[in-house]
Every structure is written in C-alpha cells, then in structure tokens.
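Dear Dr. V.,

Thank you for agreeing to look over these. As mentioned in my earlier message, I'm a first-year student in the group and I'm still getting used to reading structure tokens, so any feedback on how I've presented them would be very welcome. I ran two proteins. I've put each sequence directly above its structure. The first is here:
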Amino acid sequence: MMTEVGGSGERFPWYYHTPDRIGGSTADSSIEPPIKKLLTLSGVFVSTSLLYSFVGMDASTDQIEAGRIDTDNTYYELYQKSVELGTWDAEKLMHKVGFEEDKEVWDSLDDNEKEQWARLISYFIDGEHAVAQDARRIMKTVSSPWFDRSIEKEMFASALALEEAKHTQFFDLYLTNVMVDKFPQYELDTRRGGIQIPRTEACGAGEMFERQGTLQAQAADGGAPTDIARAATNYHIGVEGILARGGYFAKNRMMQEAPLKLLNKGFQFISTDEGRHITFGLEVLNELIEKEREGIPEYQGVENAIWEQAVEDIGYITDTAYFITESVGDPLNVDFDELVNRGARLAGDMMFDTLDLDAGSATEFMQASADAMEEAQGSDYEAVIEKYDHIYSAKMAGD
C-alpha cells in the first residue's frame, strides 16, 4: 500500500497510522486530518490536543511559504512534527501527573514483578542515553557528500538530538523518584569511565548499544555508504524500530497487571517521537538503496550491509526479549513468544514491505533469532548481573 508523505509518494505506511485508542480512552475525532497524522508505532494513538496542552500551543495546519527550505520535503514534514509535538516538557509532565499513584502501585508489587520492570527500564534508560550521545554523529553523517544536500534533513537531525536527550531525562527522573529501591546506584556516565546499568550489561541490549557507538563513529568519520547503511540499520531499525517498539509492547502488557500512570504517559510521548526517528532512518536508507539500484559504483553493497546488520542485531534483540520475560519468570505476563513474533513482524514490515530489500530471506532472519533463543535459555543472567554489580560498585567507589 502506497502512502503519500509530503507529496513525495515515498512508501512509509506507518506515517499516517492513527490507532483509535489511547490508554482505554477514545481518541479526539475532531482533530483535522493533517494534524492527526501522528506516527505512533507503539500501537497507541496520542491525541494532538493532549500533546498541545502540554506545550502551550494551538494546533495550526496552515502552511507558510518558504524560500530555500522545501516545505513539501518528507524531512521537513518530520521536522515540523517535531516542532509541534516533540517539545513536551518532561519535568512539567511529572508535575502535572505526579509520582504518587505510581509510587503506590510500585510499592504494592512483589520483588519478581519489580525485577521485571527494572529489566525493561534498564535497557530503556541506557538505550536512550546511548542514542542521545550518538545523535550528534547522525547530524554529521546526514551532511555527508554521499547524500543529496538537504537542509531539511539536517534540521530534523537536530530535533532528533534534542528529543533523545529528553527521553533520557524522563527515564532518569522517573527511575530516581519511583524505582530507586531497584536502582540504588546507576549514576555512572558510560562515556566517562563508567559502564551501563548491570542489568543492561547482562543482556543483548548492552552489546547492541556498544556496537551502535562503533557503527555511528565509523559512519560519521568519513564512512562509505555501506558504513552509513549499517549504522542507520542498527540505530533506526534495530534499536528504535524493533528493540524499543518491542519494549512498548512489553510495557503495554505489564501495565495491565501493574498500571504505572506517569510511566505510561511518558512512554506515549516517547513512542510518538521515536516513530518520527524511525521514519527518518527508513527514508535515509531508502535514499542509499535507490542510489545502489541506479548502479552508482560507490553505493554497491548497501542492501547487503543493511541485511547483514539486521541479522546480527536480531540475536541481541531476542536475547533481550528472553531476559525481560522467561529468565525472570514473566510475572507480569508479557509472553516471550508473542514478543518475539511482534519483533519479527516489525522487522519484516520495515525491511521487506518498506525498503523492499532484495538481499536476505525471512528464513535466515528467523534462524538467527532461534539460535539466539537457544543460547539465551542456557544463560545465567543473575550471575552476570552480580558480576557487573561488583564492577559498578568498584567504579562508584573510584577503585
């Protein structure tokens, strides 16, 4: 199904996807179509009226004539959505909703239920921290001569950097004020001699974030089109498109058993932001693929690079899915099999339906996931967490 985006006719079927409900309440049906076009890849619709109530703006759909900026460009439309919807304030959200209800629910959970939440939130806070730090490299990469010059592309990359920093802020504030008993220490900065939270270090997500930093550095520092393709695949398809969106699925399941109102609100804003980031990444990859298919020598191997990186990443993602479900007994009923199947569908949508990759096969992809699942079943995650707890404590003490 082809969907028009900013008049460009690019194939991004999620961009205008508007699910009907948010947290059990009906979405605002009075919103004008251009404003209602929110990217909500998490499977929930965040009404524009709610978003604007937090940023103090009135929704407006009138387009103003521009000069050197192409206002019909997909990247510009993504940027404008970031201006309109991505400027929510994490601190104001917390003051508006409050911590009290979440603290009451959190205190009522047993230790296994808290541990499952802690494992999920660990990889979100470390993941958001990692992508916030790598966003500056994305800004440099999209200015590369391998891309057609686009002011709008650079504008959106700058908005992405701000939004990733804000996601880090939200999880940091929430963890400190609600879940602190499961995170007695987590202040270390991974780029300044620290390590990731022990739970993150214990699962595939930790390895994936470390790999992300390496790939983004290679892409930004004069990388070839294949290097850029690997970095964008890891970041926008692997981390944001599958790992995070799978996390939203897990969060929704866990909320049914343990409704944390403030955390849910934060996730709704974050997932809307991330949806724009994924669309941006797919657009970037599509640009590289088109140049390869045109036969330009320097771009040959882009599709294979995308596929190879996706296959590598699915192992880390499958391990993380097992880590937050089966390995802790799944007390909040996420269901590992459904989580993995969700990830497979997301991957297929992006790589085969949206990017129309010729390289690779679904069978190869699923085999990589099955191999990772078998390895995960034999892992002693608790022992690894304990090991990194000792390392973390030593670093906190300055040893």
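The second protein is here, in the same arrangement:
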Amino acid sequence: MAGPRKRSNEALNPKSANHGIPSGLEKERRADISEFEVYPELKSDIDNILAALQQVQQRTISDGQKKSEELLDSTAGEIMSMIQQAKENMETERETLSKQTSKLCKEYDAALKAEATKYKAAYAAFCEAKDSHLQAYEDIFAKFEDCKEQLLSKFDQLRKKEKGAYANLQQICTQKFDQAEQSIKKMKQEERSFQMLKKSLGTILVGSSDDEADDTVYG
C-alpha cells in the first residue's frame, strides 16, 4: 500500500501551523501525535486541523460576545423606548388634569369676585338679605369642596396608576433581562457543544490516523 500523500503547500508546515494554539492545546497535540513523528506528513495534517479548529473557536467566541452585546443593546433600547412612552402618556394626563384644576380655580375666583361685587352693591340691604347672600357663599364653598374632593380622588387614582405602571415596567424589564440572560446562556451552551464536537473530531481524526499508519506499516 502506498504511503500517505505529501502536501506541497507551505501553509501545511507544522512550524507555521503552531501559531495561535494555546500551550495546553499544544501539549495535548504533541502527546496525541508523538507516535507519528516517523510520518511527518500525518503530523502536518493533524497540526493544520488543530490550528483550523483553534481559529474557528476564536471566531466563535468573538461572534458570541458580539451577539451578546447586540442583544443587550437591543433590550436596553426597547426598555428605554417603553419608559419614554409611559412617561409621555403620564405627562399628558398630568397636563390635562392641571388644566382642569386651573380652569376650576379661575371659575371659583370669578364666582367669588362676582358674589363680592353683589355683596358690596347690596350692603345697604345686607341685614334683610344676609341669609340669602350667606347661603350663596356656602353654596360656592360647598361646590368648591365637592370639586376639590373629586380632584383629590383623581390625583390619588393617577398616583396609583403611575405606581402600577412603574411596577409593570419593572416586571417587563426583569423579564427582558432574564430573556437576554437565557439567550447568553444558550450561546454559552452552544460553545460547550462546540468544544465537545471539537474533542470528538480530534478523537476521530487520531483514530483514523492510527488506521492509516497501520495500513502503511503492514501493507
């Protein structure tokens, strides 16, 4: 049987193939192929395969980090957009409620001034008409108190609504970050699967090289 095929490409040189391989992997590589020192062609092939696997691993790690950063940036952007939208909605509601309050205060002030004018005009006959004027004042104050209670109730409802909205946003933010964390864990799991695949491939390649070496010796 013919010997292993020789490679003419200088890129398959074992010395050049060692660049970029960690010292631990280099020791493992030397231990795995030490028995093939008498077959430099096989040794060169295995060196190049391990170097290629190392390059693939480095690219995979870089891609994984980039994807994690992109995922976190996207999640942060989505959360900021939701918070901004909620803030705008709440500001709109506050502005509407403030306008209603301002309008009520102006109406109340105008009513008081109008009634005061009437009171001054009728001061001479106040003793006869004081009961009706005092009742008018009481009606105005009673109306204001009712409106004030309604506004206070609306403010309290708005406060509870804001509290619930912030709690909901906090829950959504937590879920988003949990999803991002799960995605990162999944990518790390895929990286571990790649490591197992690399080891399995290395075992298969070494076993295949053993068979080829036996065929060469006994052929």
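From my reading of the second output: Confidence is low (pLDDT under 50) at residues 1-25. The chain has one domain: 10-218. Does that match how you would interpret it?

Kind regards,
E.
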